[in-house]
Amino acid sequence: MNKITIIGSGSVGSTIAYTMIVQGIASEVVMIDINGEKAEGEALDIRQGIPFCSPASVYAGSYADAKGSDIVVITSGIPRKAGQSRLDLAQINVDMIKNVSREITKHAPDAIYVLVSNPVDILTYAFHKYSSIPEERIIGSGTILDTARLRARIAEYYNISQKNVHAYVLGEHGDSCFIPWSLANVSNVPAKDFGNSVKELGSRSIYPAFKEADIEEYVRKSGASVIQRKGATFYAVSISVCHVCKCILSGIDTTMTVSTMMHGEYGIDDVCLSLLNVVGNKGVQSKVILPMTDDEIAALHNSANCLKNIISNVNF
Fold first, then answer.
1. Dihedral sign of CA atoms 238, 184, 308, 222 in order
2. Phi and psi torsions of 105, nearest 5°
3. How far out from the chain centre does Cα 40 lie?
4. pTM of the model
């Protein structure tokens, strides 16, 4: 029996709930939203399809209904509007996290908390400051979505299974994120060299030129590209968050790029950003110190400084 509470029943929260039921991740899902009717409607819509999925219970509730949750996923908050600064958005959603954290932790003090709302690194930091939850049980979705986008793009270049691609996006879930290309590979072959190492019977496979800068640009602008075409992003982030939850509930630890508090790793302290973390059923078990180049470490410091600049201007 796995119980998961989702706070926020907008496009992301409701799609996470739907995906959890389809994948059979949770046997009980509680949906909480300031708009109670919206939460009720989303829960009802999902519930009516459960006869063709694994048995589960999905319902709208209040904070009190979160009691006994194994995981609480927080998706509530406002999206960034045209012309709105990231700092303005950060302040509004930090204030929201302050209220949510005080209420939800009263009823689910033993849960693992997964922060999804943006700016996710700032809100993960805020949750640390506002709640008494042990930090190993506070996880920001961070760059796990960016990492998925990166792997999907590299897989498209070589027309190969995404599972054969091992590459990461680190740092901020935002403009200062970066790709440590020295670690990116396809089946243990450096990503940029994979096309040259593949030979078909009697001929060479032909692949497009592998341009790292173009791929980085693709990853950074993917969210905006989706929003421009359909108004919002929610499928890929929902699948990514469900992956995090599934790994938390499994008995085997898994490495993933999620946002956690830094304590001197690479000389960075008192900020939340994404490194490769080991995640298991007790939350974040440890960080993996990757053998990055000096330039890559400098990019990580730049990302940390960008986030600290926002933190210094937010009223906590």
1. negative
2. -70, -20
3. 25
4. 0.95
